[in-house]
């Protein structure tokens, strides 16, 4: 098999070159180019806007909308005689030919990149799909996330990174499909672009001021002792609200994982120190009234750690923390619980995996994590399985199983409730950790994965703030987390403040 990428020789742009390079780096099959006219012109305002952004934000490299020369594609071979197994990815708008398989890249159902730009300047991402040009049938699709939503050039590059992910998935036989809403395509009109620039610059000024007076980002852990139903039962916040695990403002705590051991309750957290700009894993013990002291470090590898997935198996305590910086998913065992952890094994290597979440199901171990395959960290869901906790762990044959910023990234332990498996997920449509979804896993086997999101829980009067991002429970102790404000200059040190209850009172907002 070869992948033939068809481009218009009159309109090659830097994003075309980046896409070809990404596919060439990722694929194990030959890639060749074919030149044919027909691509729609890019609105001049887009090129101008990208140049303005480059100057304002001092962006490195070339903006994705800049013109390039045909000669810049010289490292990639030109197409020779066709072969029956060739697949043509038509980016020139030439249409399909009866004697070849032709795929088209579409954004919200339209073929030109102006539809992707139109979505981005309206503060959303387009649904990206690969479509069979002859039949119009969709092969794969996804809803990408963004790491840089307020700079058009960077946001567009994130979308195109995910387009490369989807092309690769289609070629390898994976079938991720977007099952959520499908917005109508929007154009890259001048008025919407001007409003986007105004909002982006205004936000940049506000965030610059905010960083002068506050530590950012700053998260907080909420906890409560369950009386009656938990959040999976209630599908909303409890009427009594949450208490907040206090911090001193110089650290924040997030990703709470409560665990019960020998009749005692412990909560493991990401413990982030603003001065060092990285986190370790810490633990605090709870009694029936709340935390006994403050979290203390129990695992520090010298690189950033988070999402301390702690669990009990075969009479021992285990932990799989997120360790993106190492490019591995590592398993730790407690020689002395809760603060004596040793590395037992590397489960998966060569991936930047966020929030690895393990569970047993029908005699087999499974693991979810989002993988940073270029672009965003939160929108591409991978799945692995193993006959035993220690492995060997094998990737699912249809990875990635999902591309969706609203339902991909794990948000806590998978929970069994009756005959259901409920998977907490992060809904990142309004930013990282913007809301929490509860998804029922309705298919999980070697040939496929399906889930159905049943509930979205957002911050609100009972959990004020802008984020809600993790849900876990052990015994009667239930924990969540979300955003907080930490001013750099405090009249009363935060560590001298009493534990706070977050409920419906405006005074706690």
3D architecture notes:
- By secondary structure, the chain is of the alpha+beta class.
- It has two domains: 3-209, no CATH class; 216-508, Glycosyl hydrolase domain, family 43 (Tachylectin-2, Chain A, 5 Propeller).
- Helices cover 16% and strands 38% of the residues.
- It contains six helices and 32 strands.
- The strands form seven sheets. It has a seven-stranded mixed β-sheet, with helices on one face.
- It is globular.
- The relative contact order is 0.11.
- Residues 494-499 and 504-509 have low confidence and may be disordered.
What keywords describe this structure?
509 residues, alpha+beta, Tachylectin-2, Chain A, seven-stranded mixed β-sheet, 6 helices, globular
Helical segment count: 6
Number of domains: 2
Indicate the mean pLDDT: 92
Strand content: 35-45%
Low-confidence runs: 494-499, 504-509
Considering the protein shown, what is the CATH homologous superfamily of the largest domain?
A: Glycosyl hydrolase domain, family 43
Going by helix content, strand content and strand pairing, the class is: alpha+beta
The largest sheet is: 7 strands, mixed
In the CATH scheme, the class of the largest domain would be Mainly Beta
> What is the alpha-carbon Rg in Å?
24 Å
Ends distance = 58 Å
Strand order of the largest sheet: 3-2-1-4-5-6-7
């Amino acid at each position: 098999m070869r992948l033939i990428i068809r481009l218009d020789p009159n309109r090659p742009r830097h994003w075309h070159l980046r896409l070809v390079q990404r596919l060439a780096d990722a694929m194990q099959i030959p890639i060749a180019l074919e030149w044919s006219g027909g691509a729609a012109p890019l609105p001049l305002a887009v090129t101008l806007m990208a140049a303005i952004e480059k100057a304002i934000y001092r962006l490195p490299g070339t903006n994705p909308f800049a013109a390039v020369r045909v000669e810049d594609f010289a490292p990639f071979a030109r197409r020779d005689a066709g072969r029956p197994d060739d697949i043509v990815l038509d980016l020139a708008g030439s249409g399909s030919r009866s004697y070849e398989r032709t795929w088209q890249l579409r954004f919200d159902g339209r073929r030109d990149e102006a539809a992707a730009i139109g979505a981005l300047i309206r503060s959303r991402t387009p649904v990206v799909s690969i479509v069979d040009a002859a039949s119009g049938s969709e092969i794969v699709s996804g809803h990408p996330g963004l790491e840089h939503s307020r700079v058009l050039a960077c946001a567009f590059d994130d979308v195109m990174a995910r387009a490369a992910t989807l092309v690769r998935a289609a070629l390898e036989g994976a079938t991720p499909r977007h099952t959520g809403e499908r917005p109508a395509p929007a154009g890259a009109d001048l008025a919407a672009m001007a409003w986007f620039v105004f909002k982006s610059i205004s936000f940049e000024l506000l965030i610059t001021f905010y960083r002068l007076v506050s530590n950012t980002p700053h998260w907080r852990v909420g906890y409560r002792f369950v009386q009656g139903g938990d959040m999976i039962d209630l599908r909303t916040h409890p009427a009594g609200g949450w208490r907040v695990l206090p911090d001193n403002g110089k650290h924040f705590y997030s990703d709470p994982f409560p665990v019960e051991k020998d009749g005692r309750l412990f909560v493991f957290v990401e413990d982030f120190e603003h001065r060092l700009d990285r986190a370790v894993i810490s633990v605090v013990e709870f009694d029936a009234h709340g935390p006994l002291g403050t979290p203390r470090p129990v695992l520090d590898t010298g690189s950033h750690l988070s999402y301390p997935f702690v669990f009990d198996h075969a009479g021992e305590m285990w932990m799989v923390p997120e360790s993106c910086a190492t490019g591995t998913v590592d398993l730790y065992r407690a020689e002395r619980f809760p603060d004596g952890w040793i590395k037992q094994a590397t489960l998966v290597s060569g991936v930047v995996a966020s929030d690895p979440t393990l569970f047993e199901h029908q005699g087999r171990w499974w693991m979810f994590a989002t993988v940073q395959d270029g672009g965003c960290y939160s929108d591409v869901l991978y799945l692995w399985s193993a006959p035993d906790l220690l492995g060997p762990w094998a990737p699912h044959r249809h990875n990635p199983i999902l591309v969706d910023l609203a339902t991909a990234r794990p948000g806590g332990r998978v929970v069994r409730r009756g005959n259901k498996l409920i998977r907490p997920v992060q809904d990142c449509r309004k930013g990282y950790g913007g809301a929490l979804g509860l998804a029922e896993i309705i298919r999980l086997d070697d040939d496929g994965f399906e889930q159905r999101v049943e509930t979205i829980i957002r911050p609100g009067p009972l959990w004020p703030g802008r984020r809600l991002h993790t849900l876990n429970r052990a015994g009667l102790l239930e924990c969540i987390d979300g955003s907080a404000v930490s001013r750099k200059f405090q009249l009363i040190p935060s560590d001298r403040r009493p534990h706070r209850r977050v409920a419906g009172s405006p005074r706690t907002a």
